[in-house]
Amino acid sequence: MARKLAYFDNATQLYDLAWSPEQILQDIEHGEIICQALSTILQIAQTETERLDWKVIAGSLQDMRKAIAAFYPFRYTRKVSIFGSARTSPQEPEYTQAMNFARCITSKGFMVLTGAGGGIMAAGNEGASQEHSFGLNIDLPFEQTTNEHLQDSTRLIQFKYFFTRKLFFLKESDAIALFPGGFGTQDEFFECLTLCQTGKSTPKALVLVDKPGGDYWLQWDEYISKHLLERRLIGEGDRSLYTIVDSVEAACQTISNFYSIYHSSRWIGNLFVIRLNCNISDSHLDRLNQKFSDILVSGQIERSSALDAEIQDDHISHLPRLTMYFNQQSYGRLNELIAEINLVGADEEELLISCPLTQLR
Questions:
Q1: From the CB of residue 160, how many other CB atoms can be counted at a distance below 10 Å?
Q2: Mapping DSSP to helix (H, G, I), strand (E, B) and coil, where does residue 102 land?
Q3: Which of 60, 123, 238, 312 has its CA 20 to 30 A from that of 37?
Q4: Are residues 138 and 231 both part of a single domain?
Q5: Whether residues 303 and 219 fall in one domain
Q6: CA distance 267 to 59
Q7: Predicted model pTM
Q8: What pairs with residue 208 in β-bridges?
Q9: How high is the mean pLDDT of the chain?
């Protein structure tokens, strides 16, 4: 029997095999990006690889395909990821708190994402109900069986890899609510924190929720202050990336406030674009420029309508914008800017009343 080739050594073979994708895809939406993805696969096929390499590629693509299909119908609905211990029993106050939080936040138009397991995850799905829940499950040798609140749900997604699962937790979430937990919870939180701190994730509300009078997150924050901040291993503004609360009401209010006037943001070249649910007053804009000139590399924060690159986003093209040349470093301060955008003065209360507080992304 002839020995099989370890990899394709002829690019023409591959493009013939793929039926010249650039020609077929040129009239398809996102065709250029699809072609780039296929070309990358073809380039890998021209590289010396092992079977395990291809198993990782195939498995991660299958994870992404399933997740994209599940989330696409809900792409304009805001979502909150709930993290916490799988070992929390229904008798513990944190379980009740997570359940009540999920019930509260879904009443405000959000959907809930959990890891689909027990403990805090089950509490989140129970409070949100199956109608407003997603479960991002993963096979583990212990702890991680699907909770009863997601049985037979069409929004239960089974992941092979932790990294693809984490990707969709962050990609699909507009806020993160963290309850006390172990290594897994800490891992998920530090992943969120790192991506927000470095700008690899869009700004979002990170809320650390403790039981009334609890000190789990306060002691965590003390450690961060003493061992990271005092040693200048993080900046003072980095602690503005998260908020610590000890009640369901405060957790829900923190998240809904984050999106009261601020809607979303994106980069267009070197320009940072902030979309607003409604316009702010001239005095409000002046206040932003006075307080946050330190995070600009040039110019000022200015008003704008939708830019050319945004016109295709029909559902948000009408929203007013603020644009600025952000320094791409001070993401904690950027969170402070968002808080200031949402902070309406007494002279602007009428504006907030008329602001359409939609939960559309």
A1: 17
A2: helix
A3: 312
A4: yes
A5: no
A6: 31
A7: 0.89
A8: 178, 244
A9: 90
